[in-house]
Amino acid sequence: MHPSTIWRKKLRKKLKKEYGNICNYPKCDSTDRLEFAHICNTKLCGQGRGSKERIRDVRDNPHAYVLLCHRHHSLYDSMREFEKGVIDSTFGTLS
Length: 95
Ligand SMILES: [Zn+2]
Fold this sequence. Notes:
With 95 residues, this protein is mainly α. 45% of the residues lie in helices and 8% in strands. The chain contains four helices and two strands; from the N terminus they run αβαβαα. It has a two-stranded antiparallel ribbon. Zinc ion (ZN) binds at residues 23, 25, 28, 30, 68-69, 71-72.
């Protein structure tokens, strides 16, 4: 395996742990296919979103992301802005 791939996997694992290794969606405690979802703008928005750039961006902007299960990530991404705002206000308890 390429060294940068190993580095990325380790970093992703570490970051997931910091987010509790659990879906951050209200009242959800799923651990199914956890993914980082953008909740506010970072430099990465609208640009190439390769996994390498993404995981670095999560590390550099921890408050711009939440960890969501696959189901809630899809749901969140399909929400309209005002709906996202309601959900976003329930995140943000991340220390
Ligand atoms: Zn969930």
